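Contributing new records

If you add data, match the layout below exactly. Sequence lines come first and carry their own label; structure lines follow with theirs. Keep one chain per record. Anything else will be rejected by the validation script.
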Amino acid sequence: MNASKPKLKHFIATHTFNSDKAKKEYMKFIKHRKSNKDWFENVPKRDDAELYQLFIGKADFFFCHWHAESENAIIDTLSQSGADEFMITMAIEISTPKMDLEKMRFLIEKIK
């Protein structure tokens, strides 16, 4: 890595399992994870790609929110962790996520 930290952008990565067998192996590998810290334990710490959020269910694919320099930085990070043995990944740059404050105020009022 160069001396200056790269400017990171927001990406949504879609991960699709290579096979049903790969999905089962991956789910066995992650089943102990309960806290947020646990979910990120195998992701290498890099200046050019940082896993921010993970959205996983029971489907054949799942999503992650990354702060990264590029799609290649994400794929390299996943490859470094061995995740490419289980899945293929496509990452798309997105604009900075925004919150609808009026909708949030409405929902907060409903829960009060």
